[in-house]
Design brief:
This protein has 263 residues and is mainly beta. Helices cover 7% and strands 28% of the residues. Bound molecules: N'-sulfamoylpyrrolidine-1-carboximidamide and zinc ion. Zinc ion binds next to strand 7.
Amino acid sequence: IKSCGNHSCPHPALHPLWQSPLTIPGGTRQSPINIQWRDSVYDPFLKPLKISYDPTTCLHIWNNGYSFLVEFDDSTDKSIIVGGPLENQYRLKQFHFHWGAINDWGSEHTVDSKFYPAELHLVHWNAVDYPSFEDAVMEGNGLAVIGVFLKLGARHEGLQTLVDALPAVRHKDTVIEFDEFDPSCLIPSCPDYWTYAGSLTTPPLTESVTWIIKKKPIEVDEDQLEAFRTLLFTSDGEEERRMVDNFRPLQPLMNRTVRSSFQ
Ligand SMILES: N/C(=N\S(N)(=O)=O)N1CCCC1
Ligand SMILES: [Zn+2]
């Protein structure tokens, strides 16, 4: 963790703005966590993750006051993931990001205590066992979230489509139609991932998530990260607060093992 070396600039983990409680009483599988590479255990029985998204299920992009998210029509099994650590298939519901005010931090998970400047979450739910997303959110095997780290590098053409739409959702509770987007363009082709049992990182913080964290980051450029930072936590007409550092502090690993799909 990089200290800013300047006490008047507290580390975002101490940032008063982060509304959700720092810890959940009685929580034993909270997220995010630090992934200590050498403590992760290779599991040869883990399958490759199969991702099949239908771009026509893409509905809209909106600013919910925590992040910006792209939501999908999850009334059919058109956009699903299967395999990996999962017992059955899970339907894509939405994806969103977490990022920092500066490139030194921003991701929710860390790898060997290293922060990335941002992290993508693709949220899926178990429509085989549960009738709705809201029900699945309350169940131990209800959700599966793919985490992808973003690192500073080359411009990402697929992400640019999203970035171009951000000015239209600058304020909280603004939404625009967004269609024909296939989010698999945001997922690295390298099949390697870590997986562990965790939780949502924003309210309701329920312990319902099978996390699948891709080992390889995607590259985005400075302008694209800066575009994220032009968004606002606040609604139109309110005093502007820039949407940055929207990540939850690291949570204790407790009695959990992180498995890897690779040696
Ligand atoms: N916290 C969440 N996702 S995350 N950050 O844990 O992936 N969500 C809250 C409700 C829907 C998804
Ligand atoms: Zn998230």
